Amino acid sequence: MAATVLIIACGALARELVALQRLNRWTRVRIRGLPHRLHNTPHRIAGAVRAAIERDRDRYTQIFVAYADCGTWGALDRVLDEFGIERLPGTHCYEFLSGGDTFDKLVDEEPGTFYLTDFLARNFERVVRKGLGLDRHPELLPQYFGRYRRLVFLAQSGSAELRDLARAHADYLGLEYVERHTGLAPLNRALTRHAVDWRP
């Protein structure tokens, strides 16, 4: 069956979205990931999403965007409003990956929290150390992370390897390590509210 629904997604969610597509048998869905490097340049997200919509809107009966606001300060929502397209809820992906109530509790416990997902634990070197230039300028580490007190690893897969990496990243940043196993259920709940017509 040809895909009729397009999910334009943050590349950092690609594995999780593909896993949920298989789990839920969303055979009418095609997932198109945008470059994960936009994570470090949020001012470019809205433009990249607009370009993806304009390129593909005539090929699909429905488009959905798998981003939160992600630091666009409303720019992404203004683009989506133009096209009548919905996105995942929340200010950051950490909200829908952990579940809104859980995320609110984490913020209340410690506002100075840096969050890791499976993707960020796996790609920390590329996205954080090299992406922020810390490999070349380690003296910038206190400027970037001096206000944080802890690192919370939102573990989606339960991988022991990723847990070890997350602990090492917390040590590198000089932050207390906390782990919360989220699995895929919160993201699945956030998506399935919009998924009425995604199955055959």
Textual characterization of the structure:
The strands form two sheets. This protein has a four-stranded parallel β-sheet with strand order 2-1-3-4, sandwiched between helices. The protein is built from ten helices and seven strands. The protein is an alpha/beta fold and 200 residues long. The mean pLDDT is 93.
Q: What is the H/E order? A: EHEHEHEHHEHHHEHEH
Number of helices: 10
Structural class: alpha/beta
How far apart are the first and last residues' alpha carbons, in Å?
8 Å
Low-confidence spans: pLDDT under 50, at least 5 residues? none
Widest sheet: strand ordering: 2-1-3-4
Short structural description:
This protein is an alpha/beta fold and 200 residues long. Helices cover 44% and strands 18% of the residues.
Walk me through the topology.
Layout: E1 5-10, H1 14-24, E2 29-34, H2 45-56, E3 62-66, H3 75-83, E4 86-87, H4 93-98, H5 100-109, E5 113-116, H6 118-122, H7 124-130, H8 141-145, E6 150-155, H9 160-173, E7 176-181, H10 185-192
Parallel strand pairs: 1-2, 1-3, 3-4, 5-6, 6-7
Helix pairs in contact: 2-3
Comma- or semicolon-separated keywords:
200 residues, 2 domains, four-stranded parallel β-sheet, three-stranded parallel β-sheet, globular
